[in-house]
Amino acid sequence: MQIRAAVLHTSGESRPYALSRPLTITDLTLDPPGPGEVLIRVRAAGLCHSDLSVIEGVRPRPLPMVLGHEAAGVVEELGTGVTDLIVGDHVVAAFVPSCGTCEPCTRSRPALCERGAASNTNGSLLDGARRLNLRGSPLNHHLGVSAFATHAVVSRRSLVKVDRSLPFDQAALFGCAVMTGVGAVVNTAEVFPGARVAIIGLGGVGLAALLGVRVRAAGMLIAVDLSDDKLTLAGELGATLCVNASGSDSATQIREATRGGVDFAFEMAGSPKAMDLAYRITRRGGTTVSAGLPHPNAQFAVPHVGLVAEERTVKGSYLGSCDPQRDIPRYIGWFQEGRLPVDRLVSGHVEFNRINEAFDALADATAVRQVIML
Questions:
Q1: I need a surface site. Which of 65, 177, 369, 372 has the fewest CB within 10 A?
Q2: pLDDT digits 0-9 by tens, 317-341
Q3: Which class for 366: exposed (0-12), middle (13-18), buried (19 or more C-beta within 10 A)?
Q4: 38-74: per-residue pLDDT in tens?
Q5: What is the mean pLDDT of the segment spanning 344-354?
Q6: Residue 181 near residue 318, CB atoms below 8 Å
Q7: Are strands 369-373 and 151-155 parallel, antiparallel or unpaired?
Q8: CA–CA separation, 273 vs 279, rounded Å?
């Protein structure tokens, strides 16, 4: 079938993207779903830093590629072997397909699926196939989804069925921002009630983590960013202290306010400087969690003696340590109960033909979560 999609041919184009236009909206051919695959009509796709990092060349991926990985849509066709969905079901895409048979999957850690990681790196679907074609030449898939398109063929292992009453623009966020942010709080760190918590980096993932901390009833919640506008939003969402990290004394300010540091510090900016700050404000016996994705060559130094003598814990969190089939419906339930106001994270709706301008706004940190409606 013929579809329209945003194709990235070359990474590292100069900004503003409104002028260099790294993403080209093009007519493509999409092959039918193969065994274990599903054709979906994409209805909403969020713009995420993981997409931006590919555009910038910070995270190398095989090109040309159709970007987009945070999406919600409607099932239109089922490949052979898919029996637990029907045409018309509403689904959310998860950006790590889980094979169910590798060692991490059998240990209930599908976010670390070995086959899923390999296919995402290679730009293919879970079984190694590519269903996108431009004038007879195959294109690569982004994280098994490629949601910046009118339609997508994805592995059934990438999809979670959701309530049809959920608006598509809000549903899409559960596939990345909410799963990553809330999951880091609930699954990776297991934040306990009354804990002192700091979140550094208030993009879509960071603010979702903030919402997750409120669900866990933390005692003190500190929001840290370079943007006063995002700090204001964090205050409206429940932060008890907002700190602009541009100040030279931000670490001292936080340690003094918490009488020695926080129990949990979350680095959500993908920055070694942010990670250093997160570690410095974590108290003795505390936990520092990073869910940001820095440049592959970035390094973070840990004072070894402090790690030991203060019994510190440093953890990474990918996909929020989630099982998407379990956690996405759970988080949607919290949203529907009014406990997780994900709708506050949507900072605007974007026309498909203005996708390059929208990535300028994301790079400038003037937007939280922009959503393309398709």
A1: 65
A2: 999 999 999 999 999 999 999 999 9
A3: middle
A4: 999 999 999 999 999 999 999 889 999 999 999 999 9
A5: 96
A6: no
A7: unpaired
A8: 10
Domain annotation for the chain: domains and CATH numbers:
2-175+341-373 (3.90.180.10), 181-317 (3.40.50.720)
Is the pLDDT at 358 greater than 90, yes or no?
A: yes
- Enter the tokens of residue 349: 């709706």
Strand 37-46, strand 369-373: pairing: antiparallel
**Three-class SS of 102-137:** CHHHHCCCHHHCHHHHHHHHHCCCCCCCCCEEECCE
Round the average pLDDT of the chain to a whole number and report it. 96
* Spatial contact of 344 and 318, defined as CB atoms under 8 Å apart: no
DSSP notation for 159-228: EEEE-TTS-HHHHHHTTTHHHHHHHIIIIII-PPTT-EEEEE--SHHHHHHHHHHHHTT-SEEEEEES-H
- Under a CB-based contact definition with an 8 Å cutoff, are residues 91 and 69 in contact? no
d(CA 374, CA 363): 22
Helix (H) or strand (E) holding 4: strand 2-8
Helix 355-363 × helix 49-56 angle, to 10°: 100
In this structure, the chain runs to a length of 374
Three-state DSSP at 257 gives: helix
Q: What is the spatial distance between Cα 292 and Cα 278, in angstroms, rounded to a whole number?
A: 12
pLDDT of residue 295: 86
Q: Two tokens at 188? A: 């990776």
Asked if pLDDT for residue 158 goes beyond 90, the answer is: yes
**Strand bridging mode 346-350 / 369-373:** parallel
Distance CA 87, CA 76 (A): 5
Residues 118-146: tens digit of each pLDDT? 999 999 999 999 999 999 999 999 999 99
Distance CA 263, CA 280 (A): 12
196-240 pLDDT per residue, tens: 999 999 999 999 999 999 999 989 999 999 999 999 999 999 999
Separation between Cα atoms, residue 59 and residue 52, nearest integer Å: 9
Secondary structure of 25-84 in HEC code, one letter for each residue: EEEEEECCCCCCEEEEEEEEEECCHHHHHHHHCCCCCCCCEECCCEEEEEEEEECCCCCC
